[in-house]
């Protein structure tokens, strides 16, 4: 089953995080600007340090759990980050 | 009110709208565009002025200005640690923010002085560029003393290849190379529109500053006091250094303004990567919520008045 892994985090992490994903065997990703509210307050994206991004990755279960583990170790203590994984059906699953 | 700079009213309007929870919002794309314009225009203007001076006359003052500027985070850090009882990461991060400079405060300072006919030495833009990053490095060193694993490569890249340094330095180089004659066809865009764009930008900064104010209130009274006393101390350093270097009234005022200002654009981005444990709400809240409006409303006119006395 292909997993859809979604990370919502502060935009400051974008470059570092994408490098991490590639080194953890993610074959691709989609990044979108995001705004919202959570335990670290309202992040309204009107201003650089308050901008959020949402990164979506389609990958196999093994890669998904490796990414979860790595991100939790590296970023959960000090950055605003939410991560969730869902089972999805994908056309052309061999791509991921 | 001959000494009141009208663009500041736009900042107040933005802050008021923020406090009233108005639905006024400046789209992020416009904010980006305005900041690119301001940085380029400030760089170009500095470059055109710089072309009038032999480089050797700028080198010595620049060295002194950077060396004295390095004192600011070194003074701020022990104060934050001892009196504010802040953890090392927060103290180092805030010290870095206060040692670095705010481009917008500098821009308001130059428009204020231009209106009074006291424009400073044109090469002050060089000081603006040079003061931006050394304090950030000092702040990171203070915050992470002895800790291995600082991503220095990433941090230096973030600062030195960041848009503010690229556009300011690029503008300086283009202005310097093209000279006043070469830039003249662009005057209408970059110089005539400057104040209007600054007004727009200040409207946005008012909105953002108002939204930071609540966070700061939770941080306690120490930071409120620090955010108003620290710029006064730094401005004092600027007044003394400017007078020692024999700068004009405008130059001394701008140097005091630069030292007094605290970075809230370049510094947060760099500190977030270099000192992730530091709480950005504290440093941005103090720099943007208190020190920035303080400098706009009280600081710049005060530094100008003191500079007149120091230079005479």
TrEMBL record, chain A:
Protein name: Transcriptional regulator
UniProt lineage: Bacteria, Pseudomonadati, Pseudomonadota, Betaproteobacteria, Burkholderiales
UniProtKB/TrEMBL annotation, chain B:
The keyword Membrane is annotated on this UniProt entry: yes
Listed InterPro entries: Sbt_1
Protein name: Sodium-dependent bicarbonate transport family permease
A Pfam family matched in the record: Sbt_1
Bilayer-spanning residue ranges: 6-22, 29-48, 54-77, 98-117, 123-143, 155-177, 189-210, 222-245, 251-270, 282-303
PANTHER family on file: SLR1512 PROTEIN
Keywords, ordered alphabetically: Membrane, Transmembrane, Transmembrane helix
Keyword Membrane (UniProt): yes
